[in-house]
Structure formats: C-alpha cells, structure tokens
TrEMBL record:
Domain (FAR1): residue spans on this chain: 52-140
Domain of life: Eukaryota
Transcription recorded as keyword: no
Keyword Coiled coil: yes
Species in which this protein is naturally found: Salix purpurea (Purple osier willow)
Source organism phylogeny: Eukaryota, Viridiplantae, Streptophyta, Embryophyta, Tracheophyta
Keywords, ordered alphabetically: Coiled coil
Full protein name: FAR-RED IMPAIRED RESPONSIVE (FAR1) FAMILY PROTEIN
Length: 206
C-alpha cells in the first residue's frame, strides 16, 4: 500500500470528533495516540494544516510558531507556509547607543529546526513537502488538568464569539428596520410636501 493511500483514523481532542489524517498513529506519553506528520500529507486548506500541526505540537510538548510564507507575485495569495517550534532561531541582541540599557531577558529561542513546510498544490489542496521531526530541547507535555483548563477557555471563547455573532446579527436587523422606517418617513414627507404645494397653488388661484 502506498504512503499516500494509507489513512488512519485518530480521535482528535478538537471537538472530540473522528478526524482522518494520512499518516501513522504514534503512541506518545502513555494513553495519547498522536498522528505524526509526513511528507505528502494533504489538507483542504492552510488553516487545516495549522490546526493539525498545532494539535500535534500540543500533544508532543512544544508550542507551534507560524513562520515565513511565500506569496504569489500576481495576486498576493499565500502559496507556501512554514510552521515550526517557538524555539526556532536565536534572539538577536539589541544594543542601545550606550550599550545595553536593560537587563536582557532569558532567551526562549534555542535554534530548534523542527518544522513542516506546506505548499498549495495545483489540485487545490495543501501538501506537506518537508517535515523535520527532531527538537534540540526537552519537550514538555501539558498535564491533563491544564488541557482541561484550556478546553474550558476555548469553550468560553466559542460561547462569547457566538454571542457576539448573535448581537451583530440583531444589530443588522435593527439597522434594516431603521432604514425601512426612515424610508417610510421620507416617502410620507414627500407626499405631504406635494399636497402642501398643491394647496398653495389652489389658494393662489382663489
């Protein structure tokens, strides 16, 4: 069976839904089964690739960083994107005119090269063209209690977003009703103005 044809179904912690990913399930840190990226893995969109790699990062024990992209010279569309570890690269020391002004903060960058490179394919899909697995620093998986807290925060954000969406929809309805009312008033004023002009003409004749 070809790699591109191999599909494993893994239970995703995002919405507790079953999500299909081309790739193999890898046991990591006990009960969790992690879907590992691989070259040739296909996604419907750039956002889908980001969501997948972000979830993979959370399960493995690092924080995803959205890195450089390549855009179309014709219309500015994103054609390729790099997603990596937040410890990628090194912090550049910035000195003032008279040397260091502030005490430098501890660096969070360690030159980690772990990343995936996703590219927009002519088929309309996004494909992983490069996967660097290894990190040069310890990986720290968040405890289940912390994950639950994050899930609760995500749920609250979703609730507030839905409420805001409803408020916007209600506001749009009020705006439509107000516009309709103003139109009625304008039409009525125009008719009244015509009647007043007509009365004035009649009074002049008298």
């Amino acid at each position: 069976m070809d790699v591109d044809e191999r599909v494993d179904i893994a239970e995703s912690s995002i919405g507790n839904e079953l999500v299909e990913h081309g790739g193999e399930l890898v046991e990591h840190g006990g009960d969790d089964m992690v879907v590992e990226p691989h070259e040739g893995m296909v996604f419907d969109s750039e956002d889908a690739a980001k969501i997948f790699y972000d979830e993979y990062a959370r399960q493995i024990g690092f924080v995803m960083r959205v890195m450089s992209c390549r855009r179309s010279e014709r219309d500015g569309r994103i054609l390729a994107r790099r997603l990596g570890c937040n410890k990628e690269g090194y912090c550049v020391s910035i000195r003032g005119k008279f040397g260091n002004v502030r005490k430098p903060r501890p660096s969070t960058r360690e030159g980690c090269k772990a990343m995936i490179h996703v590219k927009f394919d002519k088929s309309g899909k996004w494909v992983i063209t490069k996967f660097v697995k290894d990190h040069n620093h310890p990986l720290v998986v968040a405890p289940r209690e912390a994950r639950q807290t994050l899930d609760e925060k995500d749920k609250k954000i979703q609730e507030l977003t839905a409420e805001l969406r409803n408020k916007k929809r209600l506001c749009a309805t009020y705006q439509e009703q107000l516009a309709a009312f103003v139109k009625i008033v304008e039409d009525h004023s125009e008719k009244l103005s015509k009647k007043v002009k007509k009365c004035c003409r009649k009074s002049k004749r008298i």
